[in-house]
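Re: your question from the hallway

Yes, I did run it. Sequences:
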Amino acid sequence: MPIIQILAIAASLLFLLYIGRQIIKGKLREEYSFVWIFSTVVLLIFSFWRDGLEIVAHTLGVYQAPNLVFTAAIFIILVYLLHLSKVASRLHQQNKTLSQELALLKEKVERSLKGNK
Amino acid sequence: MDKIAVIIPAYNEETSIAAVVADVHKASRESGLHYWPVVVNDCSKDRTGQIIAALECTAIQLPINLGIGGAVQTGFKYALLNGYTHAVQVDGDGQHPPGELKKLYQKMKAEGIDVMIGSRFVEGEGRGFQSSLMRRLGINYFKRLNKLLVGVVVHDSTSGLRMHNIKALQVVSDYYPDEYPEPEAVILYVKNGLKIGEVQVEMLERQGGVSSIDGVRSVYYMAKVTMAVLFTFIRLTFR
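Structure:
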């Protein structure tokens, strides 16, 4: 087994382990972890199965196997970034509503405290 | 008697806010209408928060900076929750003289209008502060855009001086744009079946602070608002 293959397998496994730990510690929500686990598993498969990339590329009619990697990776990254933008937009909206409610409540509390003095 | 909340969004307005609040009380005495200043401090970095807490007004302190739209909307929500019949936005920098509010109120009552906009341009070139050429070009552009999309002519669609009745308050407290809300809100009003009116008012040059729109930002402003207007139009047309 060539060194690069061992390195790739080790890196993929370590990454998988790290993601697992983050989920267990509650630092990464499961819904966001799927995409990471999935991509690590894909990396792991191709680390073991060295000819796999060539075969898949050939089947799809891609002449240069690395081009397939770049095309697929960039596409997946773009989709995921869009997803994150959506998440950020939703959080923004929720943040706004929360702080408005908080400010209105604070005003109410302070007014009633003043009234009781 | 109608209770009118005068919503004053304030971001770093420590130099002018006390005068604006005092003007609201003065206008209330002079007009015999019930105005009450509701200052929304949009997480100012200066002493605006402490100043308004000591003034005779409702002081709403936002914990984070929401931008002008989010701040004004907080005021709308407050007005709706606290039994006000009308709410009008008056800028914290002293551009909108509260003495002019009576005109808005009387005209909207007389003509059964839901949102009354205080405008600088209804009767052609008005008196008072008219703002820069660039800004007027922008205003003209939004006038055409709004007319094209919803067929309603608003001469001064960037004017923040707007009085809402309860029906309109229910719409804007539900959704109100965050940034540069004024031109987009026009679409919102029309698409929700609200009647818009415009009345000529005199505005002043700002007494403190700086305009949020200048130079490069005016290009961003035009692009952002155009996008927002179009998307709001599409969203509300096909819902």
